[in-house]
């Protein structure tokens, strides 16, 4: 078992024939992801990486029965691509692109929600179910199959965390990089219950960072609903204040967004919080040994 | 990207948001000319820097004659203004805004920001204008009115009514003025891809008009491409020169006050590396994310920028390759040692895509000062020891 995606998931790629899209689609195919085609306007009818290219997502979905789309289009076209996917009946869009304007994502996410399409990202490494399905840009070889679920705002900390879990002799069920933008799709709040319900996942690693209050919301939810052990790391304990955060922005979430505040909330919810990402692996081994 | 008060007011004026009349000056003479044109009889001389708290720091002063304008412009231009937002080093004032004095009956607060939890803009208003809004939020949160505006319907009448009744505005003309003001502000927030707009204070005049006495705006960097007029307002002198130089090469750099230079891929791991150094008893000298397209040139540039900082006693290169391939970083390190005099120990941890090839490249090159590390903990420990001269 796993969450959201597995070896049978039919995936299309929006921005299939572009440089980034091609490079990473090929890596995903090598990993074993069931990519059934891609979309690039005006290249419909061609073949790319041995898969059919379509002009529109609708056409791709009608022909292939794809349910998931991996989006690699340039930042200015992300919102359009997300809305096209939602309109065509895609169930999950994984948005890798970095630098999509926040206003665009406001509209795109609303539209996706209205059409019951889940989104992951933007500005994220994607999602991987170990040894079955990689939809994103992560180095696949470090994700060995196992019993630990992973959720992270940061790409490279996802790799770091997974690598340590594997070095301790465990492995990953599914790892989700949720992205570091102000507006993102699925977050801790939605993904934690999925891991709770997944029979193969026995422990969860959650990696957060300064800014916003998603980790605080997660702490509340963990306290109420999650029985599986959770290990957490919050990046930015030594980050200078106010570098990206506007003055007025800071008051939205109260006194908010510091690593300290998030770590305390998670600890109070019974989470094993580590001070350095170098401790993630050991902490996972510890909580799993206790079970 | 942030802009100056006078630039924010130019945008306000374009949308019909009332502001006092004013003109920007770079010299004392220009300031006096501006004051003459505005006519007086009172003027405000305001330092233009990208930081709040200018009034308390002595950067905003009232003049009652042209001589006073001259005196104050002379005093403020060229001063290093220190406020709670500039840090102890302060900021050099290179421009002053000369503005008509206003008839202030009372001071309000109004801002538009993104509510990240609701994923839509939120308008915040308060009767406690002119004060530090974070203090108001902490001590008297009931005095802050928050109105979320769903962009799919835009600013409606009820949003306006929630605002004016929340602010206790009973006069019907004033109600209309305030609703009109807030609606224009919301429109300009959305149309310009602003990240935040803050007006503190927004004043009510004796005649019951509302005027933006101050104006602060920040924009979504990702959207600047479609707003060349706003991009043109960028004031490079307000930005840290090293951060800017790094940005040209796709590097994200922020200087800190520690001893261990960091070069990392990914913002999360970059922060995690700083946290780990701190945890092991060292101090990070910077945040540096080499991004997803690092190559020999950008890595060499990263070394150059890190080494400009005289406090740096060791460098920790911590790369977990996903998009960034480790062999590229290894080549970058080789290149950097040819271009830059790397006079401190460099601890290198390369893991992920093409890590074995990278290890081979570094081994064959056999550069002095380059110390390999096996993982994050090992690398951080070695960097801390090296900075203390114990390696």
Termini of chain A, distance in Å? Answer: 20 Å
Principal-axes geometry of chain A comes out as globular
Please give the largest β-sheet of chain B: 7 strands, antiparallel
Q: What's the total helix number of chain B?
A: 13
CATH level-1 class of the largest domain in chain A: Alpha Beta
- Helix percent of chain A reads 25-40%
Q: Which structural class matches the secondary elements of chain A? A: alpha/beta
Structure description:
Chain A is of the alpha/beta class and 291 residues long. Chain A folds into 2 domains: 110 residues, NAD(P)-binding Rossmann-like Domain (Rossmann fold, 3-Layer(aba) Sandwich), CATH 3.40.50; 153 residues, Rossmann fold. Helix content of chain A is 36%, strand content 22%. Chain A is built from 10 helices and 14 strands. In chain A, the strands form 2 sheets. Chain A has a 7-stranded mixed sheet, with helices on both faces. A 7-stranded mixed sheet of chain A has the order 9-8-11-10-12-13-14, sandwiched between helices. In chain A, α7 links the parallel β12 and β13. Chain A starts with 10 loop residues before the first strand and ends with a helix. About 3% of the residues of chain A have low confidence. Chain B is α+β, with helices and mostly antiparallel strands and 391 residues long. Chain B folds into 3 domains: 155 residues, 2-Layer Sandwich (D-amino Acid Aminotransferase, Chain A, domain 1), CATH 3.30.470.20; 81 residues, ATP-grasp fold, A domain (Dna Ligase, domain 1), CATH 3.30.1490; 147 residues, Succinyl-CoA synthetase domains (Rossmann fold, 3-Layer(aba) Sandwich), CATH 3.40.50. In chain B, a hairpin with a 4-residue loop joins β8 and β9. Chain B is elongated, with a radius of gyration of 26 Å. The model of chain B has no long low-confidence stretch (mean pLDDT 92). Chains A and B meet through α4, α5 and α8 of A and β8, β9, α4, β11 and α9 of B.
């Amino acid at each position: 078992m796993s969450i959201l995606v597995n070896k049978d998931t039919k995936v299309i790629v929006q921005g299939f024939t572009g440089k980034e899209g091609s490079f990473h689609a090929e890596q995903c195919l090598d990993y074993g992801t069931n990519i059934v085609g891609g979309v690039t306007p005006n290249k419909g009818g061609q073949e790319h990486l041995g898969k059919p290219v379509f002009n529109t997502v609708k056409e791709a979905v009608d022909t292939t029965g794809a349910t998931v789309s991996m989006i690699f289009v340039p930042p200015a076209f992300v919102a359009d691509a997300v809305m096209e996917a939602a309109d065509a009946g895609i169930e999950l869009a994984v948005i890798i692109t970095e630098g999509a304007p926040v206003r665009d994502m406001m509209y795109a996410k609303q539209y996706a929600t209205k059409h019951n399409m889940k989104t992951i990202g933007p500005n994220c490494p994607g999602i991987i179910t170990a040894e079955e399905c990689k939809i994103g840009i992560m180095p696949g070889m470090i994700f060995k199959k196992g019993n630990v679920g992973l959720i992270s705002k940061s790409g490279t900390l996802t790799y770091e965390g997974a690598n340590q879990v594997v070095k301790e002799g465990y492995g990953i069920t599914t790892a989700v990089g949720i992205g570091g933008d102000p507006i993102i799709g699925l977050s801790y709040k939605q993904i934690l219950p999925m891991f709770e319900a997944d029979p193969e996942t026995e422990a969860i690693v959650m990696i957060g960072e300064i800014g916003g209050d998603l980790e605080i919301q997660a702490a509340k939810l963990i306290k109420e609903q999650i029985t599986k052990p959770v290990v957490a790391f919050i990046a930015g304990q030594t980050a200078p204040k106010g570098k990206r955060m506007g003055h007025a922005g800071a008051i939205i979430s109260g006194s908010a967004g510091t690593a300290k505040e998030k770590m305390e909330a998670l600890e109070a919810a019974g989470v094993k919080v580590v001070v350095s990402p170098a401790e993630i692996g050991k902490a996972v081994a510890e909580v799993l040994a206790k079970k | 990207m942030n802009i100056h008060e006078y630039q924010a007011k130019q945008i306000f004026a374009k949308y019909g948001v009332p502001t006092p009349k004013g003109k920007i000056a770079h010299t004392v003479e220009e300031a006096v000319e501006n004051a003459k044109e505005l006519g007086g009889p009172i003027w405000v001389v305001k330092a233009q820097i990208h930081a709040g708290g200018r009034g308390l720091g002595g950067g905003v002063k009232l003049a009652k004659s042209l001589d006073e304008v001259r005196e104050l412009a002379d005093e403020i231009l060229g001063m290093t203004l220190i406020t709670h937002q500039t840090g102890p080093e302060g900021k050099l004032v290179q421009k002053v805004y000369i503005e008509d004095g206003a008839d202030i009956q009372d001071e309000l607060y109004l801002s538009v920001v993104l509510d990240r939890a609701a994923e839509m803009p939120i308008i915040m208003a308060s009767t406690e204008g002119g004060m530090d809004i974070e203090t108001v939020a902490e001590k008297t949160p009931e005095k802050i009115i928050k109105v979320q505006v769903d962009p799919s319907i835009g600013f409606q009448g009820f949003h306006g009514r929630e605002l004016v009744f929340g602010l206790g505005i009973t006069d019907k003309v004033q109600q209309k003025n305030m609703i009109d003001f807030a609606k224009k502000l919301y429109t300009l927030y959305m149309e310009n891809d602003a990240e935040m707009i803050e007006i503190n204070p927004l004043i009510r005049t004796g005649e019951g008009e509302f005027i933006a006495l101050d104006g602060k705006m920040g924009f979504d960097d990702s959207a600047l491409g479609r707003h060349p007029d706003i991009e043109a307002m960028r004031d490079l002198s307000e930005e840290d020169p090293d951060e800017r130089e790094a940005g040209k090469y796709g590097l994200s750099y922020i200087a800190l006050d520690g001893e261990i230079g960091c070069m990392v891929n990914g913002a999360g791991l970059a922060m995690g590396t700083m946290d780990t150094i701190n945890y092991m008893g060292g101090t990070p000298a910077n945040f540096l994310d080499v991004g997803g397209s690092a190559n020999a040139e950008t890595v060499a540039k990263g070394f150059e920028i890190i080494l400009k900082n005289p406090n740096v006693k060791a460098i920790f290169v911590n790369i977990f390759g996903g998009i960034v391939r480790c062999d590229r970083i290894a080549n970058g390190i080789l290149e950097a040692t040819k271009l830059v005099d790397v006079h401190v120990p460099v601890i290198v941890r390369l893991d992920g895509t093409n890590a074995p090839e990278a290890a081979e490249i570094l081994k064959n090159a056999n550069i002095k000062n380059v110390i390999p590390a096996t993982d994050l903990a090992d690398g951080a420990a070695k960097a801390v020891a090296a900075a203390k001269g114990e390696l």
